[in-house]
Specification:
Blueprint (H helix, E strand, L loop, with lengths): L14 H36 L7 H31 L5 H22 L3 H36 L1
Length: 155
């Protein structure tokens, strides 16, 4: 009794794995859009709050101060999921994934526990999302190059 594969693999990678990696890439894209929204909120509400008429407006101050933090903090679970997928399917070196998540976590927790601030730790999480974006892009560029090479060989 021989065991036959359920579906053809793409260069040794099962289709389910590729689907999970694509899903993680889409989640990472959402995280990056949230980061862009945080930066835009910081600039827009900071500019409006700096106008003399709005100096005493607490709502604008809270939007300027807290909204970017909240948006970036919401990207952390998404980034952790992306890190798991990247680590699981070896899309990047394991030490690189562990280092980026570890350093960002230590900086965030250290800032919250000892300095009573979160801005530096959340800023380090910004870089993690963009690093993972590059990892996903490299992986799919590799698959596309392999596919093009195979079609050229068949011709």
């Amino acid at each position: 009794m021989s065991i036959e594969p359920k579906q053809a693999n793409t260069y040794g990678i099962p289709p389910l794995a590729i689907a999970r990696i694509k899903g993680a890439q889409q989640a990472n894209t959402i995280a990056i859009y949230m980061i862009y929204a945080a930066l835009i909120a910081f600039v827009v509400f900071g500019t409006i709050a700096s106008i003399k008429v709005f100096h005493d407006n607490q709502l604008l101050y809270r939007l300027f101060y807290n909204l970017p933090f909240i948006l970036v903090a919401l990207t952390i679970p998404i980034t952790l999921y992306d890190a798991f997928i990247i680590y699981r399917y070896r899309l990047s070196q394991s030490s690189m994934v562990i280092m980026t998540i570890g350093v960002s976590t230590v900086i965030l927790l250290g800032g919250l526990l000892f300095a009573d601030t979160a801005w530096l730790g959340l800023a380090s999480w910004l870089g993690v999302a963009f690093l993972f974006k590059v990892s996903f892009k490299r992986f799919f560029d590799f698959l596309q190059a392999e596919e093009e090479t195979e079609t050229l060989e068949q011709s």
